[in-house]
Structure prediction request, 313 residues.
Amino acid sequence: MSHFTEINFNQQSPRAVVMVRPHHFRSNPETTSDNTFQVQQSELNQNETSIRALEEVTNAVSILRSHGVTVHLFEDIKKLTPDSVFPNNWFSTHADGSIGIYPMYFANRRKERKKEIIELLKSQYRVEKIIDYSHFENKNIFLEGTGSVVLDHINRIAYAVKSNRTSFEALTAFCSDFNYRPMFFEARDKSGTPIYHTNVFLSIAEKFALVGLDLIPDKAERQQVLNLLVSSGKEVIELSSNQIENFTANALELTSSQGKLLAISRTAFRALTQSQISTIEKYAKPVVIDIPTIESAGGSIRCMLAGIHLELR
Prediction:
């Protein structure tokens, strides 16, 4: 297979991911102010919550590997990084050999950036350049990786919902550097709170998209997002606000030797209708992963997967 074909084959749906296994997981007390998906953990003591989260990550890694996905697993033994299980927020990788490193809204999330992950990528994949936006934190400007920005890699469109964690200035800088067209818009939950991360509202696969269009209050913006998805060749699966609350858009299409897979949590999958499942199955096999403890922190399986779009050395 040619170099060009290989890059394009992996462009939207990566064959490999980075995951982080936390040893001291908890729902981050700093992030409750703007993450309405986050819930207080049950009466379980903190130690049991940590054990359950570690087991959920271990199981998720095993399931993905059994389906032919390469998983680079890193351990986080620190107690100061409760959200480290969500590495997609601080870095992204791209088929041209670039890596982006991002400015994080909450101070304790900035501690999640791990040099050893970048060194692993440089040792095993062709990394041509690293663009570090973390200096934007000094100006209170933020862009939390592929949480803030959902990328249509093929059509070069960067979808981003306005929020505390997603600043237009940082989005513009990213789009200029990485050659994407920005689609910046508002989306709010049923209580009127801005959606904190775009990737709980929208998932773009190679040939379909999961999206909560009804959460876009402005009719013109709603139509613009829909038109852009359709014109870029995606079959649009519209999700209700209840499905969004159940993380149904927080899924990621992956490529394996078995074909296209859709990594999705059990919570999210149960919220889908049979018709929606049938549409997904035209393009990808759902791989259902049970992560209820981790979801209590306000993110699901897509947040746990930092896709690797780089070419192997």
Summary: The chain has eleven helices and 15 strands. Residues 46-66 form the longest helix (21 residues).
